Protein backbone atom coordinates (compact mmCIF):
# COMPACT_ATOMS: atom_id res chain seq x y z
CA UNK A 1 0.00 0.00 0.00
CA UNK A 2 1.38 3.42 -0.90
CA UNK A 3 1.46 6.17 1.70
CA UNK A 4 -1.30 8.75 1.72
CA UNK A 5 0.31 11.87 0.25
CA UNK A 6 -0.27 15.61 0.27
CA UNK A 7 -1.68 15.22 -3.26
CA UNK A 8 -4.27 12.79 -1.87
CA UNK A 9 -5.19 15.34 0.77
CA UNK A 10 -5.97 17.87 -1.94
CA UNK A 11 -8.28 15.35 -3.59
CA UNK A 12 -10.41 14.99 -0.49
CA UNK A 13 -11.01 18.60 0.18
CA UNK A 14 -8.00 20.54 1.40
CA UNK A 15 -7.80 23.60 -0.81
CA UNK A 16 -4.87 23.50 -3.21
CA UNK A 17 -4.69 27.27 -3.30
CA UNK A 18 -4.40 27.51 0.45
CA UNK A 19 -1.55 25.01 0.53
CA UNK A 20 0.29 26.60 -2.36
CA UNK A 21 -0.07 30.03 -0.82
CA UNK A 22 1.53 28.81 2.39
CA UNK A 23 4.77 28.23 0.53
CA UNK A 24 6.12 25.62 2.93
CA UNK A 25 5.85 21.88 3.35
CA UNK A 26 5.07 21.97 7.07
CA UNK A 27 2.04 24.19 6.70
CA UNK A 28 -1.17 22.93 8.28
CA UNK A 29 -4.37 24.63 7.12
CA UNK A 30 -6.60 26.04 9.80
CA UNK A 31 -9.83 24.15 10.32
CA UNK A 32 -11.84 27.03 8.87
CA UNK A 33 -9.99 26.66 5.54
CA UNK A 34 -11.20 23.12 4.94
CA UNK A 35 -14.43 22.93 6.91
CA UNK A 36 -17.68 23.20 4.95
CA UNK A 37 -20.02 25.01 7.31
CA UNK A 38 -23.12 24.73 5.12
CA UNK A 39 -23.43 20.93 5.16
CA UNK A 40 -26.82 20.05 6.70
CA UNK A 41 -26.70 17.57 9.56
CA UNK A 42 -28.81 14.40 9.37
CA UNK A 43 -32.31 14.90 10.70
CA UNK A 44 -32.51 12.39 13.52
CA UNK A 45 -35.50 12.38 15.86
CA UNK A 46 -34.22 11.33 19.26
CA UNK A 47 -36.45 8.75 20.91
CA UNK A 48 -38.44 9.87 23.94
CA UNK A 49 -36.84 8.85 27.23
CA UNK A 50 -33.61 7.80 25.51
CA UNK A 51 -30.65 6.76 27.63
CA UNK A 52 -27.28 5.59 26.34
CA UNK A 53 -24.47 3.46 27.67
CA UNK A 54 -21.04 3.94 26.11
CA UNK A 55 -18.14 1.51 26.52
CA UNK A 56 -14.67 2.81 25.72
CA UNK A 57 -11.03 2.03 26.55
CA UNK A 58 -9.63 3.36 29.80
CA UNK A 59 -7.51 6.45 29.40
CA UNK A 60 -3.77 6.41 28.98
CA UNK A 61 -3.68 10.18 29.36
CA UNK A 62 -6.04 11.77 31.86
CA UNK A 63 -7.14 14.55 29.53
CA UNK A 64 -8.64 12.00 27.13
CA UNK A 65 -11.07 10.66 29.72
CA UNK A 66 -11.78 14.01 31.36
CA UNK A 67 -12.76 15.72 28.13
CA UNK A 68 -14.71 12.74 26.79
CA UNK A 69 -16.82 12.74 29.95
CA UNK A 70 -17.27 16.50 29.67
CA UNK A 71 -18.48 16.06 26.10
CA UNK A 72 -20.93 13.38 27.22
CA UNK A 73 -22.29 15.72 29.91
CA UNK A 74 -22.63 18.46 27.31
CA UNK A 75 -24.62 16.10 25.10
CA UNK A 76 -26.97 15.35 28.00
CA UNK A 77 -27.40 19.05 28.68
CA UNK A 78 -28.16 19.77 25.01
CA UNK A 79 -30.50 16.84 24.35
CA UNK A 80 -31.76 15.56 27.69
CA UNK A 81 -30.36 12.09 26.89
CA UNK A 82 -28.58 10.55 29.87
CA UNK A 83 -25.23 9.04 28.95
CA UNK A 84 -23.34 6.53 31.07
CA UNK A 85 -19.69 6.08 30.10
CA UNK A 86 -17.81 2.96 31.20
CA UNK A 87 -14.01 3.00 30.83
CA UNK A 88 -12.73 -0.55 30.41
CA UNK A 89 -9.16 -1.83 30.67
CA UNK A 90 -7.46 -2.36 27.33
CA UNK A 91 -7.21 -6.11 27.78
CA UNK A 92 -10.88 -6.48 28.74
CA UNK A 93 -12.43 -4.16 26.15
CA UNK A 94 -12.41 -6.71 23.32
CA UNK A 95 -13.96 -9.65 25.26
CA UNK A 96 -16.64 -7.42 26.80
CA UNK A 97 -17.48 -6.06 23.36
CA UNK A 98 -17.74 -9.60 22.00
CA UNK A 99 -20.07 -10.64 24.82
CA UNK A 100 -22.38 -7.70 24.10
CA UNK A 101 -22.44 -8.62 20.41
CA UNK A 102 -23.18 -12.28 21.07
CA UNK A 103 -25.90 -11.90 23.69
CA UNK A 104 -27.51 -8.82 22.13
CA UNK A 105 -27.49 -6.59 25.19
CA UNK A 106 -25.19 -4.26 27.06
CA UNK A 107 -23.63 -1.02 25.82
CA UNK A 108 -25.37 0.85 23.02
CA UNK A 109 -22.15 2.37 21.71
CA UNK A 110 -18.65 0.91 21.83
CA UNK A 111 -15.36 2.57 21.02
CA UNK A 112 -13.80 -0.72 19.93
CA UNK A 113 -10.34 -1.80 18.82
CA UNK A 114 -9.22 -1.69 15.20
CA UNK A 115 -11.35 -3.94 12.97
CA UNK A 116 -13.35 -5.57 15.78
CA UNK A 117 -16.59 -4.22 14.21
CA UNK A 118 -15.81 -6.36 11.16
CA UNK A 119 -16.39 -9.48 13.27
CA UNK A 120 -20.12 -8.78 13.60
CA UNK A 121 -21.24 -6.30 10.91
CA UNK A 122 -24.77 -7.72 10.89
CA UNK A 123 -25.21 -6.65 14.52
CA UNK A 124 -24.31 -3.01 13.95
CA UNK A 125 -26.38 0.05 13.06
CA UNK A 126 -25.76 1.55 9.62
CA UNK A 127 -23.86 4.82 10.20
CA UNK A 128 -23.52 5.80 6.54
CA UNK A 129 -25.69 8.92 6.79
CA UNK A 130 -23.69 10.29 9.71
CA UNK A 131 -20.31 9.32 8.24
CA UNK A 132 -21.04 10.93 4.88
CA UNK A 133 -22.18 14.12 6.58
CA UNK A 134 -18.99 14.33 8.65
CA UNK A 135 -16.82 13.57 5.63
CA UNK A 136 -18.39 16.36 3.60
CA UNK A 137 -18.15 18.84 6.45
CA UNK A 138 -14.61 18.10 7.61
CA UNK A 139 -12.50 17.72 4.49
CA UNK A 140 -13.01 14.01 3.90
CA UNK A 141 -12.10 10.80 5.71
CA UNK A 142 -8.57 9.49 5.36
CA UNK A 143 -8.52 6.23 3.34
CA UNK A 144 -7.52 4.19 6.41
CA UNK A 145 -10.69 5.39 8.19
CA UNK A 146 -12.83 4.27 5.26
CA UNK A 147 -11.09 0.90 5.21
CA UNK A 148 -11.75 0.32 8.90
CA UNK A 149 -15.20 1.90 8.89
CA UNK A 150 -16.93 0.32 5.91
CA UNK A 151 -18.37 -3.17 5.68
CA UNK A 152 -18.22 -5.50 2.69
CA UNK A 153 -21.25 -3.77 1.13
CA UNK A 154 -19.62 -0.34 1.27
CA UNK A 155 -21.83 0.96 4.06
CA UNK A 156 -20.33 2.46 7.20
CA UNK A 157 -20.65 0.03 10.11
CA UNK A 158 -18.31 2.04 12.34
CA UNK A 159 -16.37 5.30 12.39
CA UNK A 160 -12.76 5.46 13.62
CA UNK A 161 -12.48 8.31 16.10
CA UNK A 162 -8.69 8.25 16.28
CA UNK A 163 -5.52 6.24 16.36
CA UNK A 164 -2.63 6.24 18.78
CA UNK A 165 0.65 6.11 16.92
CA UNK A 166 3.59 4.05 18.04
CA UNK A 167 6.44 6.50 17.57
CA UNK A 168 9.88 5.86 19.04
CA UNK A 169 9.95 7.66 22.38
CA UNK A 170 13.56 8.25 23.39
CA UNK A 171 16.00 10.09 25.64
CA UNK A 172 17.91 12.30 23.22
CA UNK A 173 20.95 12.70 25.46
CA UNK A 174 21.41 8.93 25.64
CA UNK A 175 20.96 8.58 21.87
CA UNK A 176 23.71 11.17 21.43
CA UNK A 177 25.98 9.37 23.91
CA UNK A 178 25.50 6.22 21.84
CA UNK A 179 27.00 7.99 18.82
CA UNK A 180 23.87 9.10 16.97
CA UNK A 181 22.48 12.60 16.53
CA UNK A 182 18.95 11.27 16.07
CA UNK A 183 17.23 7.89 15.86
CA UNK A 184 18.47 6.27 12.60
CA UNK A 185 16.08 6.12 9.68
CA UNK A 186 17.17 2.63 8.54
CA UNK A 187 17.00 -0.74 10.30
CA UNK A 188 20.73 -1.52 9.98
CA UNK A 189 21.82 1.56 11.90
CA UNK A 190 18.88 1.18 14.28
CA UNK A 191 20.36 -2.16 15.36
CA UNK A 192 23.75 -0.49 15.85
CA UNK A 193 22.05 2.11 18.03
CA UNK A 194 20.44 -0.65 20.12
CA UNK A 195 23.83 -2.33 20.58
CA UNK A 196 25.52 0.92 21.64
CA UNK A 197 22.74 1.80 24.05
CA UNK A 198 23.04 -1.56 25.75
CA UNK A 199 26.83 -1.16 26.06
CA UNK A 200 26.25 2.22 27.72
CA UNK A 201 23.82 0.75 30.24
CA UNK A 202 20.75 2.38 28.66
CA UNK A 203 19.01 -0.44 26.76
CA UNK A 204 15.87 -0.22 24.66
CA UNK A 205 12.69 -2.08 25.57
CA UNK A 206 9.55 -2.92 23.56
CA UNK A 207 6.52 -4.87 24.80
CA UNK A 208 6.46 -8.54 23.78
CA UNK A 209 3.51 -9.66 25.86
CA UNK A 210 0.00 -9.56 24.41
CA UNK A 211 -0.13 -5.77 24.45
CA UNK A 212 -3.01 -4.39 22.38
CA UNK A 213 -1.17 -1.22 21.46
CA UNK A 214 2.57 -1.36 21.91
CA UNK A 215 3.14 -5.05 21.23
CA UNK A 216 1.05 -5.14 18.06
CA UNK A 217 2.43 -1.83 16.79
CA UNK A 218 6.10 -2.72 16.80
CA UNK A 219 5.86 -6.41 15.88
CA UNK A 220 3.75 -5.64 12.81
CA UNK A 221 6.23 -2.93 11.83
CA UNK A 222 8.99 -5.52 12.14
CA UNK A 223 7.31 -7.97 9.76
CA UNK A 224 6.06 -5.37 7.28
CA UNK A 225 9.40 -3.54 7.16
CA UNK A 226 11.05 -6.66 5.75
CA UNK A 227 8.30 -7.37 3.22
CA UNK A 228 6.33 -9.92 5.23
CA UNK A 229 2.54 -9.87 5.62
CA UNK A 230 -0.15 -12.04 7.13
CA UNK A 231 -2.04 -12.33 3.82
CA UNK A 232 -1.80 -11.26 0.20
CA UNK A 233 -4.28 -9.09 -1.70
CA UNK A 234 -6.59 -12.11 -2.11
CA UNK A 235 -6.55 -12.95 1.62
CA UNK A 236 -4.34 -15.98 1.10
CA UNK A 237 -2.18 -16.57 4.18
CA UNK A 238 1.48 -15.91 3.32
CA UNK A 239 3.07 -15.28 6.72
CA UNK A 240 5.37 -18.31 6.32
CA UNK A 241 7.73 -16.64 3.87
CA UNK A 242 11.44 -15.82 3.43
CA UNK A 243 10.60 -12.18 4.18
CA UNK A 244 9.03 -13.10 7.51
CA UNK A 245 12.01 -15.28 8.40
CA UNK A 246 14.37 -12.39 7.62
CA UNK A 247 12.28 -10.09 9.81
CA UNK A 248 12.38 -12.56 12.69
CA UNK A 249 16.13 -12.98 12.37
CA UNK A 250 16.55 -9.21 12.58
CA UNK A 251 14.05 -9.03 15.44
CA UNK A 252 16.03 -11.58 17.47
CA UNK A 253 19.18 -9.49 17.10
CA UNK A 254 17.29 -6.39 18.15
CA UNK A 255 15.59 -7.92 21.17
CA UNK A 256 18.90 -9.32 22.38
CA UNK A 257 19.79 -5.69 23.12
CA UNK A 258 16.62 -5.07 25.17
CA UNK A 259 16.31 -4.81 28.91
CA UNK A 260 15.38 -8.22 30.41
CA UNK A 261 11.71 -8.97 31.09
CA UNK A 262 10.01 -7.56 28.00
CA UNK A 263 8.43 -10.93 27.16
CA UNK A 264 5.77 -10.26 29.81
CA UNK A 265 5.31 -6.56 29.17
CA UNK A 266 1.80 -5.23 28.52
CA UNK A 267 0.88 -1.70 27.49
CA UNK A 268 1.67 0.04 30.81
CA UNK A 269 5.01 -1.71 31.25
CA UNK A 270 7.26 0.30 28.97
CA UNK A 271 5.78 3.56 30.25
CA UNK A 272 6.83 2.63 33.76
CA UNK A 273 10.29 1.43 32.71
CA UNK A 274 10.96 4.57 30.67
CA UNK A 275 9.89 6.99 33.38
CA UNK A 276 11.96 5.03 35.90
CA UNK A 277 15.03 5.63 33.74
CA UNK A 278 15.48 1.92 33.05
CA UNK A 279 15.24 2.18 29.26
CA UNK A 280 16.32 4.75 26.71
CA UNK A 281 13.90 4.08 23.86
CA UNK A 282 10.56 2.37 23.38
CA UNK A 283 7.54 2.23 21.08
CA UNK A 284 4.68 4.20 22.57
CA UNK A 285 2.09 6.88 22.14
CA UNK A 286 2.66 10.39 23.43
CA UNK A 287 1.55 9.37 26.94
CA UNK A 288 5.11 8.99 28.27
CA UNK A 289 5.91 12.60 27.41
CA UNK A 290 2.54 13.69 28.83
CA UNK A 291 3.21 11.87 32.12
CA UNK A 292 6.68 13.40 32.45
CA UNK A 293 5.49 16.95 31.73
CA UNK A 294 2.77 16.69 34.36
CA UNK A 295 4.59 14.64 37.00
CA UNK A 296 4.65 15.96 40.57
CA UNK A 297 8.13 14.41 40.87
CA UNK A 298 10.68 17.12 39.93
CA UNK A 299 13.15 14.55 38.58
CA UNK A 300 10.59 13.02 36.20
CA UNK A 301 9.28 16.45 35.21
CA UNK A 302 12.81 17.49 34.27
CA UNK A 303 13.08 14.39 32.09
CA UNK A 304 10.47 15.82 29.70
CA UNK A 305 13.04 18.18 28.18
CA UNK A 306 15.11 15.16 27.10
CA UNK A 307 12.18 13.17 25.67
CA UNK A 308 11.82 13.23 21.89
CA UNK A 309 9.82 11.26 19.32
CA UNK A 310 10.84 9.74 16.00
CA UNK A 311 9.23 7.50 13.37
CA UNK A 312 10.15 3.85 13.06
CA UNK A 313 13.10 3.21 10.73
CA UNK A 314 12.54 2.03 7.18
CA UNK A 315 13.41 -1.59 6.49
CA UNK A 316 14.43 -3.49 3.36
CA UNK A 317 11.08 -2.74 1.67
CA UNK A 318 12.26 0.84 1.29
CA UNK A 319 9.13 2.60 2.52
CA UNK A 320 7.49 3.42 5.85
CA UNK A 321 5.44 0.61 7.38
CA UNK A 322 3.83 2.27 10.37
CA UNK A 323 1.08 0.76 12.48
CA UNK A 324 -1.27 2.30 15.01
CA UNK A 325 -3.82 1.40 17.65
CA UNK A 326 -7.13 2.52 16.21
CA UNK A 327 -10.35 3.14 18.15
CA UNK A 328 -13.48 2.44 16.10
CA UNK A 329 -16.90 3.80 17.13
CA UNK A 330 -19.89 1.53 16.52
CA UNK A 331 -23.54 1.27 17.54
CA UNK A 332 -25.17 -2.08 18.29
CA UNK A 333 -28.55 -2.93 16.78
CA UNK A 334 -29.73 -4.09 20.17
CA UNK A 335 -29.90 -0.45 21.31
CA UNK A 336 -33.42 0.78 22.06
CA UNK A 337 -32.43 4.25 20.94
CA UNK A 338 -30.61 4.11 17.59
CA UNK A 339 -31.31 7.73 16.68
CA UNK A 340 -30.01 8.99 20.02
CA UNK A 341 -26.95 6.79 19.58
CA UNK A 342 -26.24 8.08 16.07
CA UNK A 343 -26.75 11.64 17.26
CA UNK A 344 -24.24 11.09 20.07
CA UNK A 345 -21.70 9.71 17.62
CA UNK A 346 -22.18 12.70 15.33
CA UNK A 347 -21.87 15.03 18.32
CA UNK A 348 -18.49 13.73 19.51
CA UNK A 349 -17.00 14.06 16.01
CA UNK A 350 -18.08 17.69 15.60
CA UNK A 351 -15.46 20.45 15.91
CA UNK A 352 -16.84 21.87 19.17
CA UNK A 353 -16.25 18.54 20.93
CA UNK A 354 -13.53 16.87 18.85
CA UNK A 355 -10.91 19.63 18.88
CA UNK A 356 -11.02 20.10 22.69
CA UNK A 357 -10.86 16.30 23.17
CA UNK A 358 -7.84 16.02 20.87
CA UNK A 359 -6.16 18.94 22.62
CA UNK A 360 -6.86 17.54 26.09
CA UNK A 361 -5.25 14.28 24.95
CA UNK A 362 -2.20 16.33 23.81
CA UNK A 363 -2.19 14.51 20.50
CA UNK A 364 -2.50 10.97 21.85
CA UNK A 365 -5.27 10.34 19.32
CA UNK A 366 -4.57 11.23 15.70
CA UNK A 367 -7.58 12.28 13.65
CA UNK A 368 -9.46 10.44 10.85
CA UNK A 369 -10.88 13.58 9.17
CA UNK A 370 -8.57 15.78 7.10
CA UNK A 371 -9.82 19.08 8.53
CA UNK A 372 -8.49 18.27 11.98
CA UNK A 373 -4.91 18.39 10.72
CA UNK A 374 -5.34 22.12 11.41
CA UNK A 375 -5.82 21.55 15.14
CA UNK A 376 -3.23 23.76 16.95
CA UNK A 377 -2.28 20.75 19.09
CA UNK A 378 0.04 19.63 16.29
CA UNK A 379 2.03 22.87 16.11
CA UNK A 380 2.08 24.26 19.63
CA UNK A 381 4.83 21.82 20.65
CA UNK A 382 7.30 20.45 18.05
CA UNK A 383 7.43 17.16 19.95
CA UNK A 384 3.83 16.46 18.98
CA UNK A 385 4.64 16.41 15.26
CA UNK A 386 5.60 12.71 15.10
CA UNK A 387 1.99 11.80 15.94
CA UNK A 388 0.22 14.33 13.72
CA UNK A 389 -0.26 12.17 10.62
CA UNK A 390 -0.69 8.71 12.11
CA UNK A 391 -4.00 8.04 10.37
CA UNK A 392 -2.81 9.51 7.11
CA UNK A 393 0.23 7.22 6.95
CA UNK A 394 -0.56 3.99 8.81
CA UNK A 395 -1.11 0.57 7.29
CA UNK A 396 -4.00 -1.58 8.48
CA UNK A 397 -3.91 -4.73 10.54
CA UNK A 398 -4.73 -7.42 8.01
CA UNK A 399 -2.45 -5.78 5.42
CA UNK A 400 -2.33 -6.57 2.45
CA UNK A 401 -5.78 -8.14 2.38
CA UNK A 402 -9.27 -6.99 3.22
CA UNK A 403 -10.82 -6.53 6.63
CA UNK A 404 -13.37 -8.92 8.04
CA UNK A 405 -13.82 -11.67 10.58
CA UNK A 406 -10.50 -13.32 9.77
CA UNK A 407 -8.36 -10.19 10.01
CA UNK A 408 -9.98 -9.19 13.29
CA UNK A 409 -9.68 -12.69 14.71
CA UNK A 410 -5.99 -13.13 13.83
CA UNK A 411 -5.21 -9.80 15.48
CA UNK A 412 -7.26 -10.70 18.56
CA UNK A 413 -5.33 -13.98 18.73
CA UNK A 414 -2.00 -12.10 18.73
CA UNK A 415 -0.57 -14.37 16.03
CA UNK A 416 2.15 -12.01 14.83
CA UNK A 417 2.92 -10.83 18.35
CA UNK A 418 3.32 -14.43 19.56
CA UNK A 419 5.42 -15.42 16.54
CA UNK A 420 7.93 -12.66 17.24
CA UNK A 421 7.98 -13.47 20.96
CA UNK A 422 8.64 -17.17 20.29
CA UNK A 423 11.75 -16.37 18.29
CA UNK A 424 13.02 -13.61 20.52
CA UNK A 425 12.67 -15.79 23.62
CA UNK A 426 14.51 -18.65 21.95
CA UNK A 427 11.51 -21.01 22.08
CA UNK A 428 11.46 -21.43 18.31
CA UNK A 429 13.57 -20.77 15.25
CA UNK A 430 12.34 -18.18 12.76
CA UNK A 431 11.26 -20.93 10.35
CA UNK A 432 9.43 -22.86 13.07
CA UNK A 433 7.63 -19.78 14.34
CA UNK A 434 6.60 -18.68 10.85
CA UNK A 435 5.24 -22.16 10.06
CA UNK A 436 3.20 -22.21 13.27
CA UNK A 437 1.83 -18.72 12.58
CA UNK A 438 0.79 -19.88 9.11
CA UNK A 439 -1.22 -22.76 10.58
CA UNK A 440 -2.86 -20.58 13.21
CA UNK A 441 -3.87 -17.95 10.66
CA UNK A 442 -5.28 -20.52 8.23
CA UNK A 443 -7.82 -21.53 10.86
CA UNK A 444 -9.41 -18.09 10.42
CA UNK A 445 -8.72 -17.51 6.73
CA UNK A 446 -10.56 -20.55 5.45
CA UNK A 447 -10.82 -20.84 1.69
Automatic annotation (TrEMBL):
The keyword Transport applies. GO terms for cellular component: periplasmic space. The keyword Signal applies. It comes from the Bacteria. Pfam families: SBP_bac_8. It is found in: Periplasm. Keywords: Signal, Transport. Transmembrane segments: none annotated. Gene3D superfamilies: Periplasmic binding protein-like II (3.40.190.10). Its main location: periplasm. Belongs to the bacterial solute-binding protein 1 family. This is ABC transporter substrate-binding protein. The lineage of its organism: Bacteria, Pseudomonadati, Pseudomonadota, Alphaproteobacteria, Rhodospirillales.
Amino acid sequence: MSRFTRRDTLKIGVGAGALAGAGMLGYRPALAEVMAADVPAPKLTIEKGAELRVLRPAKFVQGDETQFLANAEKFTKDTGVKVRVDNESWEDLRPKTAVAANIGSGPDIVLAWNDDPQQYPDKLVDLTEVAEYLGKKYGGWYPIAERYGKGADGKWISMPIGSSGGALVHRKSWINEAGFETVPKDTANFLKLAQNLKKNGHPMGFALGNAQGDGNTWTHWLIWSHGGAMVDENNKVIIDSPETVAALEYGKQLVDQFIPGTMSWLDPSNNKAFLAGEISLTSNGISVYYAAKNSPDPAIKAMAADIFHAPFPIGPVGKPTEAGLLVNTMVFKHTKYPNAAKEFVRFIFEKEQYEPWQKASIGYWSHPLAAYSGNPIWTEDPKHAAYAEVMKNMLWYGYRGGLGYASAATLADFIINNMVAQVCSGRATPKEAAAEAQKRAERYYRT
